[in-house]
Structure formats: C-alpha cells, structure tokens
Amino acid sequence: MNSSRETILNAVKKAVKNPSHLPESPAETENLIQESLKAITPADRKGLRNQFEKELLAVSGEFVPVKSTGELVAHISKDLQNKQYRTLILTDHKNTASAARQLQTEYSAINYIRATELEADARKTRLAFADAALVGVDHAIADTASLAVLQADSDSMFPHFLPDCIYVIVKPEQLIANLFDLFTLIPTESAKNMLLITGPSRTADIEKIIILGAHGPRRLVVYWLEE
Amino acid sequence: MNLTPKSTKHYIHNALHDERLRNAVNKATQTSLSKSKSIKDQIPYWQNLRYRAHSIKKQVMENLDQYLEQFEKNCLANGIHVHWAVDAEQARNIILQIARDKQAKTIVKSKSLTTEELHLNDFLIENGLETLETDLGEYIVQLKGEIPSHLTAPALHLNRQDIGKLFHEKLGAPYTEEPTALLTIAREKLRAKFLAADIGISGVNFAVAQAGAVCVIENEANARLTVGLPKTHIAVMGIEKIVPGYKELATFLKLLAPSATGQKASVYVNIIGGAPYPKMHEGPQEMHVVILDNGRSRILADPQLRETLFCIRCGACLNICPVYQQVGGHAYGWVYMGPIGAALIPQYLGEKEGRYSPFASSLCCACFENCPVRINIPHHMLKLRNRIVDKGYSMKIEKFGIAAWAFLAKHPCLYRFATWFPGKFQLLLPKGMAFPAPGYFRQRALGLFDPKGFRKRFMQLQKK
After folding, report:
1. What is the model's pTM?
2. Exposed, middle or buried by CB within 10 Å (0-12, 13-18, 19+), for B144?
C-alpha cells in the first residue's frame, strides 16, 4: 500500500460524505428506454439481418450475402484478383477454417500467411504491411453493424486491425440486436479483453472530411454466410 | 500555465481577429452538430438515456471510494500494475520510471486529455524519450507545437493548407493540400513508429470496476495500435472515469459516439483488462494503470460543483456553444475548453487564476441541452461567477459597472434618464452610426437604441 493511494482514497471517502442533492431521474426512465428499444428492434431474424446490412453500408462497410463456403471462396478470390492483393492473412477462427482451406486449394495466385505460425515480432511486422486478412468474429450487433471480437490466447488479434482490408465471416446465429444485449450475453470475464469494430478505420481530423483507412483497415467486407 | 487577464484577453483578441480560424471553427462545429442531430433523431430513447447516464454518474460519484477499490482489486487480479498519483508531478514521475525500467526509447501515445493535463509529452521528451502522438489531429498539433483546440477534434482550427505547409516544413514531405495524401504521409511516418515503439500510452474513456478493465474509444485504430503493438501499455485515468460494470458501460458507449462525432458507434471500442497472452504474446505483455487525482477529489468534495466530474469529454457542449464557435479552443488558455472547460478551469487551477473562464459564456443553456450526461453547466458557471465575485477576483471595470447600476437602480429618476439618454444621443450621430462603446465595437456591431428609450418602448410592447 503506498501513501498516495491512502491519500487519494481518504480524500475521496471524506468528499463523498457530503451529499450533492442532484435531481433524481424521472421514475419512468427505465420503462421508457425498454419500450423504445422494443419498438425499434426488428421482431424477426430477417429484420435484424436487414438492419445490420443497412447500418454496415452506412459506415462504409461492404456486405456480401453468400449461401455456401464455395460461393464465399469464389467471391474472395475474385476480389483478391480485382484489387491485386498479394498477401492474405489467415487466422485460426472457427468461422474461417473451412473457407481458408478451400481458398488455399483453389486460388494459388496469392501469398498466404497463417498469423499463428509466426513469432509475435515477425507477425507484427509482416501483418503491418499485408494487403488483406480473413477473420472471424464472436458477435455481430444489428443496430450499429458492430463486430465483437473476444481476445483469446489461441488466435491472433493483429489481423483485425493491421492489414489494409479485412474480410469478415459472420454467421446468422452470431447476430444480436444491440449493445445492451451484447453485454448481457457476455460474461464479465470474457469481455475483459475485447474489441468492437464498426466499419473501416477513419478520420475526420482534416476539415471534418471523412477519409477511410486512417491507421487501420481501409476496407471492411462482411460475408454473411447463410449455409 | 498562468491565465492572467492579459493572456486571456490576448487569446480572445487573437481568435476574434483571425478570420481563417473563425471560419474553420464554424465549419467544423456546424458539421458536427448536424451529424450529431441526425443520429440522435434515430434514437427515440435518447433523452431517457441521458437521464440514465446522469443517474449512473451520480451513484458512482457518491460511492467512488468503493468503486476505486473494486477497480484496483480486479486490475491486480488481472495482472495489471496499479499506480496512484496525487498530482501531475507524481504521475509524470511514475510514467518516467516505468519507461526507464523498460529501457524505452520510443513511446507512442493515443489521444488523451488527461495526459495533456500532465504536459506529459514535453516532460518525456525533455527526459530523452521520443514521444509521439498518433491520432492524426494530435499529431498535427504536436508538430505545430500547440495544444488541442477541441476535446475530440484537436486540429479543428487548422485547414488543409495549414496542414500541407506544416507537413512540408516539419516532415519534408512535398506540399499537398489533398486530405487523403496528407493522411497517407502521416500514416506512413507513424506506422514505422508503432512497430518500433517500446511503450504505448493511452488515456481511458471508462474504467470498468467489476472487470478491472479500461475502455479506450477511437475511430482511427491508432489507439488499438498503441495498446496492441508495444510490449508495455500505460493507461492514464482520472479517478472520475469509473463505471460500475459493462451494463453501465453500454449506456455511455451509446451516448458518446453520437455526441462526440455524430456516429451511432465509434469505429473501435478497445476493452483492455491486462491478462498477458503467453502463447500468442499479443496485446500488452505488461500493463500499468495510473489513477490520477490532481484536484478531482477537491471537486468531488464540493456538492455544488461535483456534477462537473460527470463529463465524458465528448465535446458536444463545445460544438453548440456560441462563444466557442467564435473563439475556438485556444482562447480558453488551458487543456479543457468550451463550456465544460470554463467550469473546470477555476476548479483545477484555482478561482483566482481561472477567474475569467466562467464569464466566457452567454448562459444560453444550449450546452446543458446538448450534454449527453445532463450536466447543468450554466448553473455551475453561475455558481463559480458568484464565488469569484465574492472573493473579490472580478475585474475593476465590472465592479464599477455593477456599482453604477446599483446606484441607478436606487434612484429611479436617474435610472429613467440613463435608459432614455443613449437613444436620444444616438440621434446626434451620423445616420446608422451606433452609440459609441469603446472596446465592444472592435469585434462586433452594437445594435441601435430605440430613440423612445427603454421604458417607453417596454411599456408599448407590454400594451401590445
């Protein structure tokens, strides 16, 4: 225990003894929030999916619905070719395993790097200049088009924010209505290291003009895999 | 920092005479307001969420000691080193010591007003550490040798030509005023620094007591790179940043982005709760949290002004403030600016030093209406004005003005004459020329008085 800690905590303890008499919130606040949330949340899965798509497009993300892993692989291959990407980072996320295997077999005109096979320092350097990554996420949030990634020691987080473009595979069962539901769903312990991503990286620091790809990915492509 | 009358007047005078600055500030604030409004209009529970946020903050502040202890306990359980700093000097020394222990050479920083409050960059640079801001706006103002002029848009006062010239002079880049090209220059310079950095320093938007984790919110991914690439992460937070748990965090996340940048959600919400990853060696391998008081417990002890600690630094009050829109952030002379800055400056720096700040307001209450946490900023500014006047720190001219008004108010005949005279005197002046008001004129036009005089005009209006 250091003395600064005691000094601060004692000062705080003394300070909070004086009540502030600030006004209380109206009693109906919580009910009104719940009613509003209910009213604006789509009632079915299709509605949530449409909301997610709309919100993703509004934040400059790209939305590609696919019916099978084969269709997904064909689309990514074409995109890699069109954009002339030369490196694709692969992760060990369960959503991406099958697509990654198929891509490596069917499209050989690119350099594949498995993030988890590199040492941490080398991983950092290689990924910092990579063109694209294929990643999975743990949850998708419909009302803001946010993607939640829970950090685990079995996979790398770098592919989510270092390359220029990220391809994200989202499955319908991962979709939840809003942020309030997310934090109700995830246990505190699991949310302790988490990243929420909403669209490509951006800045408006020059005359409030939005420019994508500030320090993170310029593109965020969501593959909605409805197998 | 010494906010003397001379320096305050100098800041305001310069701002009011700088047409380019006023245009830049006006354009930026109007853009932010319009974006913010369009997002808030899509959230039907917005007003109720503001009530909820206020209620959470009130509850947290009244039990802050318990939440701080809970936060510390959970941080320690997560393997985070917790440091307590009574003042800025102690916080700076703690951070320097960590850097020395790690034999650090390069430090990258993400945007943090708390570290601005500590003047941390200058201190670390003076001690031989290369310290770089990485948020684009912060990087620009650091290169220019300035402090931020807005809580969330630090380079809001500069236009693309200013930035083009700056990058040309300081970075040797070919002159360009094309925003994407300017960003590319900064991104390339900084990416190399991210990879080489030994330590990343961030601020903290919210500290989650139940989890022992900190939350850092941003759009650029520079904070992610700051906390995720260097081996050591130092998070600097004021004691007021606590939220009880994730449920409460969700409320503030919902409020912050629409208020700050007119987005439904910020691009990156980083939640960092220590726990090194021994297999992947990712994220910070060592994490430190510096919990700073630096005057906050003194504000907490004042029940009348405690509410000013509820601020989540979104900048919404700045964007809507008619005074800020005219003078920009540097006119306030310290790291916190706008209406909330005007209320915080005398509390942090003392009522004597910050005696001019609460008067930089028209008390129109727009800041209160726009604050996502419902802080009654005008009420606090009035309270501070009251104290400043009571302690005799107000300007002589104001004292004279109030004394003159009090005298006239006690003598109705003289009062009647005083309100009648300007309108009549004005008739003697060339047509269209307003009543002379030295000093006032220089920056604005004084309206014409009604020749009938105030009382007559007022009675006529009442009859209507």
Report:
1. 0.93
2. middle
